Amino acid sequence: xxxxxxxxxxxxxxxxxxxxxxxxxxxxxxxxxxxxxxxxxxxxxxxxxxxxxxxxxxxxxxxxxxxxxxxxxxxxxxxxxxxxxxxxxxxxxxxxxxxxxxxxxxxxxxxxxxxxxxxxxxxxxxxxxxxxxxxxxxxxxxxxxxxxxxxxxxxxxxxxxxxxxxxxxxxxxxxxxxxx
Length: 180
Description:
Blueprint: H1 2-22, E1 24-25, E2 45-48, E3 53-55, E4 64-70, H2 75-90, E5 95-101, H3 110-122, E6 129-131, H4 134-140, E7 145-146, E8 148-153, E9 158-164, H5 168-179
Parallel strand pairs: 4-5, 5-6
Antiparallel strand pairs: 1-7, 2-3, 2-6, 4-8, 8-9
Helix pairs in contact: 1-2
């Protein structure tokens, strides 16, 4: 019986590791694809989870912005939040992280906002997390899995390779490469 328990425990651990590394897929099961067409991040005018106005001007003044697209329903997204929060506090002056709460139906989605605030507070996250407006919701339709992390320069251009799945080490590599 003890041996069976060990095998079951090891199997659960292996599954959890794979699950956390891969991210949460959309229901249609399509693989995540790189953004087709323009490499420009869409213009937006929305609010963060604290109700403060946020526009695409958030990218100005920073060489690189890490945009973490995440959902309140996604265990890998939630699991990486403490590490992202810590990294945000240690980033160089010319870099920043912002989050987009992808399962919010818009700036007035109080239920998802409350869930996001709870997750962010528990993870000690202080970087800006926004609720998508119509333009961002349309942009997010092209993403099939979360977390998806993209990188945006000060002019609002998407640069580098997006990362699908929770992989903070890979995000850090992309930022270091861009800041060289």
